[in-house]
Every structure is written in structure tokens, then in C-alpha cells.
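Thread: Amidohydrolase-related domain-containing protein, structure

OP (GT): Posting the sequence first so everyone is looking at the same thing. Length is 288 residues per the record. Can we get the C-alpha cells written out before standup tomorrow? I want them in the notebook alongside the other entries.
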Amino acid sequence: MDCTNLIAIDTHTHAEISCWNPFDNYGEEYDRAADKYFRSSRRPTIQESIDYYRERKIGFVMFGVDAESQLGRRRIPNEEIAEAAQKNSDIMIAFASIDPHKGKMGAREARRLVEEHGVKGFKFHPTVQGFHPYDKMAWPIYEVIAEHKLPAIFHTGHSGIGSGMRCGGGLRLEYSNPMHLDDVAIDFPDMQIVMAHPSFPWQDEALSVATHKPNVWIDLSGWSPKYFPKQLIQYANTLLKDRVLFASDWPLISPERWLKDSEEAGFKPEVMPGILKGNAMRLLGLAA
Ligand SMILES: [Zn+2]
């Protein structure tokens, strides 16, 4: 990634549709409920996202969410995202997502994706994948990530997926309590852990864990900065200024809206270069 020409690096964007696989309509009710909750049904292709980001000179990290075990839905191939990132390496970095229920087979896949497809990190979603982050089931995958000293993003806090569905679609919010990552951070000191989103209703837990464990970071995706809890802004301005990351959750929130709304959110001007770009460069091991 050619960082000098970029105004920012967005560390959290989603691949929502595959151009390799036919659409899997199994479990489509989760999509319809999410459309309603997020008041948007926009699902750009990977190429459309690349064009959007390149035009705005914003680098980005992209991933899917593999929840095949709990949802029974085919995932977007990690290789499809990785190939797009390799062809567009000026602007794009691929993370992979592997359902932790895949255990050692998942760990083999993780290794192959890192060593042969240039994947630079991993995304987990405890609520949608249906696992406790400290469950030993996930360790074989964490071990591969730690061995390569790569970052792992974990969804934290409330989940829009399942919101408003009967029984919340059977998805457990509690798995996404950021306090669970405290244990993971102790056992995997070489894995950089990114807590995604303001972790409502556990914002203070997230700030506490990130302040205590230097391998824990916070990404600011999924919400307009207008609605960030004030303690999150306060920590981003002070104790955690080197480990807080600009991130949108594209296509749910556009980076343009995020950047515009951040002007009114109370960030100190001097912390913004780090939040927008410098911290992500360190996390991702990108040269200046
Ligand atoms: Zn997300």
C-alpha cells in the first residue's frame, strides 16, 4: 500500500457479495432484517468498493464473515478477497474470516491464506459465528495468527445482525462482550487484537481492556462519530491515542460520512493523523 498518497486507512470494510459464487439465498431472512435495522440494502461488489476507495484516496482493509456453522450460509471465498487485494495492492489489504468451528482444518486454511494468498489479518464475529472468544476451539487459528504476528479484529458490542428477528435470530449478544478478549490478550501477546466498534453496552469494559493490554486496539467503525460515547472520545484523545483506528464498517457507513461527522465529535486535532492513518500503518506493518 502506498501510504504517502492516502488521506486515511479504513481498517474495517465488508465484502458483501461474491462474484465467484452464486448468491446463497439460504438464511436470507438475516439480510432482510439487517436491511431494516440499518435502513440500507446497499451491497456493492468488491470491484465497486475498490473504485470508490481509490477515487477518494483512502486505503482499506476488507473481509467477509465466515459463519457457515451457525448460519448454514456459504461464505464469500477468502481467496476472492485476497486476489482482489493482490491486484489492487496500492489501495486494498485483505483479511480473512474463518469460522472457529473449523478448528484445525481452519488453522490449515489460515496458514495457507497467509503464506500463499498474502492475507494480512483475520476477522471474527463471536455473536454471528456463535463462539466464545476464549473457547479453546478457536486456539488453533489464533496460534497461526500469533505465529505470523498478525492482527485479529473481533466484533464487539451490540450486533445489528439478528436485531428485531424472532429470538434475535438465535444470536447471542453476550459472546461479543469485549471483556472476553482480556483472556485472549493474555494468552496471545503476539496477536494484535482489535475490538471493533464502540462496544455498546460495554464501552467501559473495552476501554479498560485496551488500556491494560498493549496488544489491544479499538476501531471506530459502525457508528457515526456523532453518537460515540464521550468516554471513548476522551480515551482516543489521551491514553489510547496510539491504538484507536479510523474505520467505517463500509458499506453500512461510508467513510465520507464518518470523516465529516468526526469533525464535530470532539477529537483533538493533534490525535487525528494517528487515528486516520498512522496507527493503522503500525498495526498493519506498513512502511511510511
Ligand atoms: Zn463490521
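GT: Both are above now. Quick notes for whoever picks this up: Residues 103-117 form the longest helix (15 residues). Residues 3-284 form a domain with the TIM Barrel fold (CATH 3.20.20.140).
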